[in-house]
Amino acid sequence: MTKIMTDDNHRCAWASSAPDFPDYHDTEWGFPIDDDRRLFEKLCLETFQSGLSWRTILTKRENFRRAFYHFDFNKVALFDDDDVEKLLNNKGIVRNKRKILAVINNAKRAIEMIEIEGSLAAFLWRYEPNASTLPPPETQTICEESVALSKELKKRGWQFVGPTTLYAFMQSMGLINDHAEGCFMREEIDKARKVFKRPRALKNY
């Protein structure tokens, strides 16, 4: 994606709350994603964010990527007790054992899902909210679809996937456009979503 080099544009209010937020806001947040690894990465980072600020996670993101083999779920699923111990001693990440174990568990669940659904993207995009039914941007932290997705993922054995976590995931991965009215990126995201080809599952539902 092209980096938008300007400080004259009106952005979402949160984008000015930290030095590294404008670039993330302008080049990543809200663009639709169908790459399984990137989707898994964001689910994992949202897991680590639980109870913390996104800035904490964003500043440590490269450390997380190195520690978790760039969130290759096939590799993460093989992590053992020694790997967990190394992660707990890694000062560059959030050293929370429950969250680390959840990521390893979810890597295994991701592999299972791909065997059934064909891809993570095909499954996750089934829960794309209808834009016409959503309230104005920046006015809620969950939606009907994030609640439904949370229930289904938990039923399939995923951990740390509450409705609020998944709504934040939907915002960042482009399943919804939650850029504020008047934010210059709202139109850009609308354009990206219009040309985005939704991934399809192997079977009909």
TrEMBL record:
> Do you know which Pfam families this protein is assigned to?
Adenine_glyco
User: What protein name does the entry list?
Assistant: DNA-3-methyladenine glycosylase I
